[in-house]
Amino acid sequence: MCFYRNIIIFAVGFLIILGTTVGAPSVVGRDVSVIQGETGVLLCNVIDTNYNVSQISWERRTRGQPQDSEFVTIMPKSGLKVINGGGDRVKFIGNFDDKNGSLELSGITLMDEGIYTCAFSLFPGATQQKTIFLNVVVPPVSSLVDNHPVLGDKEVSLATCTAAGSKPPATVSWLFGNLPGNLTTFSNAIEHQNGTVTTVSSLVGVPSRELDQQLVQCVVTSKATKDQTLPFTIQIYFPPSEVNINEQPDGSFSCDTAAKPMPEIVWTRIDGSWPESSVTVKDGRLKFLTMDASLNGLYQCEASNEYGSKYGRLYVHNKAGHCTVCWTLFGLLISIIVVAGVIRFLCTSGKLNG
């Protein structure tokens, strides 16, 4: 009885020693995060065993393949076989001698995110496996748009900065220093079915003339990429203010006003038909090609943009024959005065007596 008990104790002890020195294989690997569009490496190898590897296989459960499905099998002689498509993106970078079953997966997308299980078929011995999670990181698409705030006394959104479709969610912040007015920000996040998030942040303030042309910055922070800084010059829009008509050195008349965006200038004649052959309008300036009584009348310039309009008026009055007759008579009169003066001088000096 004692003899059999000793044999059993010896056998158990031998098996324990054998298991710690020859058996107890394990598979090692680690979770990995990859930026969308780049290449990821799925590391997996079996250690602590002298058994031979007869086959390496991979299974996956991803966004694109929501059910457990075969992905890859690798045999010592026939090599890599990719199942269910995508073979051009998969590369076996391990080897059987090192008991390394690592894969390289290129052009990674969100559809590749999920659980990958590598398994080693050992001989002699059982199959050993390891589960790895592939996390796909998506950089945001950043943009900054002008909300076209109109001059006023109430708070509105001046500009909107967006970090679209990122994973994990991006953070959007503003740098505006000590600008006039009490500027604030408002942000919200929109979750999409594919796991990405769009973060939208608005810069809010009262649209005043003091804010016009002030520089601010939107900063997008994401784990998927370096911080992005988007500069923006605040634009405050307003309709045309008071219109002034001014004569220019070339004789044309300009229609001047302050407005944003720059207004369109349109000239019309209020009290008659437009004298096509006698006037021109270029770059918003009205110029008369002749000056006669037929052009007499009231002319109006209208300055307008999408936010409003203002107008100014110019009254034109020319006397008949103003340009030719008046200047001719004035020239003759000057000539007569000059001749009479010369004759008087000669008579007084006695130079004509001889």
UniProtKB/TrEMBL annotation:
The keyword Membrane applies. It is a single-pass membrane protein. Residues 1-23 form the signal peptide. One of its GO terms (cellular component) is adherens junction. GO terms for biological process: heterophilic cell-cell adhesion via plasma membrane cell adhesion molecules; homophilic cell adhesion via plasma membrane adhesion molecules. The chain crosses the membrane at residues 327-347. InterPro entries: CD80_C2-set, Ig-like_dom, Ig-like_dom_sf, Ig-like_fold, Ig_sub, Ig_sub2, Ig_V-set, Nectin/Nectin-like. Residues 25-133, 139-235, 252-305 form the Ig-like domain. Keywords: Cell adhesion, Disulfide bond, Glycoprotein, Membrane, Repeat, Signal, Transmembrane, Transmembrane helix. It is found in: Membrane. Its main location: membrane. Belongs to the nectin family. PANTHER family: NECTIN-1 ISOFORM X1-RELATED (PTHR23277:SF106), NECTIN-RELATED (PTHR23277). This is Nectin-1-like. It comes from Takifugu rubripes. The gene is LOC105417127.
